[in-house]
Amino acid sequence: MVRITGRQHGGGHVLANFSYISRLGHGAEKQVPLYTSDGDILHDGKDMQILAQDWQEWEMGDDARRKGATSISMILSMPAGTDPERLREAALDFAREEFANRSWVASLHVDRDHPHVHLTFARRDHDGRRFHPSRDDLFRYRQRFAARLRDRGIEANATPARARGIDPKHEPIAAKKVREKGQVPRVDRSRAERARSFRDRGIPDPVNAVLANQRAAVLTAYERSIAELSSSPSLADQAIAKSLEKFVASMPAPEPNSVRADRLARGERDAPSQLGRDGGVTTALDPVAAALARAKAMREQIEAGKSDLSAHEQPQSGANAERPSGVSDRLRSLMDDASRSAPAPEPGKADDIMRQTQERDREQRERDRTRDKDGPRR
Fold first, then answer.
1. What string of H, E and C letters represents the secondary structure of the chain?
2. What is the per-residue pLDDT across 49-90, written as a single tens digit (0 to 9) for each?
3. Hey, how many other C-beta atoms are within 10 angstroms of the C-beta on 95?
4. Which residue has the higher pLDDT, 135 or 18?
5. Mean pLDDT on 171-196
6. 138 with 4: CB under 8 angstroms?
7. Confidence (pLDDT) at 360
8. Could you tell me which of 127, 211, 214, 233 has the C-alpha nearest to residue 163?
9. Domain residues of the chain, as ranges?
10. The whole model's pTM is what?
11. Which of 133, 168, 240, 319 could form a disulfide with 137 if both were Cys (CB 3.0 to 4.6 A apart)?
């Protein structure tokens, strides 16, 4: 997961962020290193104060009245069980590559149930241009961070929340902070009361129907893809189909926020229930099982159709055996000539394509270097 967590205004606010992510003042046993874009590792509060002041002076430039953000903070996290050291190296590589033209700091936290890296970068780059990440930038960040994780043997995919069957509505940052302290935020209490109210009146939560419809749309899209890939003669497509089946089977059940809040209030960590297509909550994997069953049935229908089609075709021999029946001799002759005259693939074609892809990626990263990206300079 990669998301923006806040913005800092002024040197004092930036220093407070540095102190928080490095656990400065919490004791030597709890303090963590603060890695910088210059390759330094900071432990001393005085060094952090100097760096924060440098960022503020660079942000102000020649305009002492400027009141924009000095820095932007984000978090890069992975589920519990992820190797923290490999996560840290992947996050630092991501920062060096993505923010090569601006100052940044990062620190690894392992004091929660899942390891995560806090990353704070200066809003103004070394060329004086100010920047704020857009939605497209965040998607690119997730893709690049996932790639750096895979480079280190950590399985990661930058799939959107909807593609994983998860309600994409974001939770308030304040509520997450309160939960991390072991307390129940006010929003969870109101959601739990809402869930109990529906349950006491014997009325199903209307959110269940919304989540069930979203789940059904996602599963239907995956069913079609699995069926098409499974029926492909390509072994690569068939392997992707099997991987998709495993991915669908591992998708979590959609859970309304009110139900989740009530479950957390009772001290239950895991969600054992699954949400069916009809909007009801069941204990079986009905949507997943039904999706896989439909995918299997669609594959069987496609295979049966292929068998019927091949039964009506006349067997052919030689080079023409690969040509579809009903093709005229003249057309078959032209197709054979085209096959013989087709140039053999160049050995370095894959390398050329890879280089072109890297060039396009580099050009995309350089777009924010234009002077006019954020408007005229002040």
1. CEEEEEEECCHHHHHHHHHHHHCCCCCCCCCCCEEECCCCEECCHHHHHHHHHHHHHHHHCCCCCCCCCCEEEEEEECCCCCCHHHHHHHHHHHHHHHCCCCCEEEEEECCCCCCEEEEEEECECCCCCECCCCHHHHHHHHHHHHHHHHHCCCCCCCCCCHHHCCCCCCCCHHHHHHHHCCCCCHHHHHHHHHHHHHHHHCCCCHHHHHHHHHHHHHHHHHHHHHHHHHCCCCHHHHHHHHHHHHHHHCCCCCCCHHHHHHHHHCCCCCCCCEECCCCCEECCCHHHHHHHHHHHHHHHHHHHHHHHHHHHCCCCCHHHHHCCCCCCHHHHHHHHHHHHHCCCCCCCHHHHHHHHHHHHHHHHHHHHHCCCCCCCCC
2. 999 999 988 888 766 556 678 999 999 988 888 888 999 999
3. 25
4. 18
5. 75
6. yes
7. 74
8. 214
9. 2-151, 162-303
10. 0.52
11. 133
Residues 23 and 28: their CA atoms lie apart, in Å, by 9
Q: Which of 162, 285, 261 is nearest to 205 (CA)?
A: 261
Neighbours of 129 (CB within 10 A): 18
What pLDDT sits at residue 116?
92
* φ and ψ of 118, to 5 deg: -90, 130
Fill in the amino acid letter for 212: A
Per the rule left: phi > 0, alpha: psi between -120 and 50, beta: everything else, 333 is alpha
**What's the CA gap between 122 and 126, in Å, rounded?**
9
Measured CA to CA, the distance from residue 279 to residue 286 in angstroms comes to 12
CA distance 324 to 320: 8
Place of tokens 């407070």: 16
Q: What is the CATH number of domain 2-151?
A: 3.30.930.30
